[in-house]
């Protein structure tokens, strides 16, 4: 077990150290079979020390790791990031909340609401999430540039994201994100 975890850590460090940010879909595809050997929650929890842009690029370039995840799987992934970092002691580029970024921004479902509904998450982590979400609300929504890059060349194609999103909404009862930044701030 220790060797397997160390192998995962070595692989993730190698991917991070050798990444040049060009063609991430192609770059990560070379390691997808190795990555599939490990638990996604463990992979993501380890990478929270990397910058948010790299982390999002990793997620958007490895759809085979998350395409078929259930709502329960995403809650396990969220749990792996707890305890959350203090929202005012981190920079926007820190990855301590990248799961929320990914789920809100790209999967477009109410990840904040899902997080807050979890009885096993501490009130402190819920409070930190609300503070952080208010701080970065504008970054939890896609803009023109984001849409341009989810084209199947740089990152996963938006249609693949849509398939995964619709599966979670229709089969898992996840609420889709329909509100604006202002409405999100009001909710928070």
Care to describe what's here?
- With 188 residues, the chain is mostly helical.
- The chain has one domain (2-187).
- It has 13 helices and no strands.
- The longest helix is centred in the N-terminal third of the chain and has 17 residues, at 2-18.
- It is globular, with a radius of gyration of 16 Å.
- The protein starts with a helix and ends with a helix.
Write the layout of secondary structure elements.
Elements: H1 2-18, H2 24-29, H3 32-35, H4 40-46, H5 52-61, H6 63-66, H7 71-80, H8 98-106, H9 111-116, H10 123-135, H11 144-149, H12 158-172, H13 181-187
Short structural summary:
With 188 residues, this protein is mainly alpha-helical. The chain contains 13 helices and no strands.
Short descriptors:
single chain; 188 residues; mainly alpha; 61% helix; globular
The whole-angstrom Rg is: 16 Å
Instruction: Note the overall shape.
Output: globular
Q: How many angstroms does the end-to-end distance come to?
A: 41 Å
Overall average pLDDT: 89
* Largest sheet descriptor: none
- Count of the domains: 1
Oligomer designation: single chain
Query: Which bin fits the share of residues in helices?
Result: 55-70%
What ranges have pLDDT less than 50 throughout 5 or more consecutive residues? none
Order of helices and strands: HHHHHHHHHHHHH
β-strand percent reads under 5%
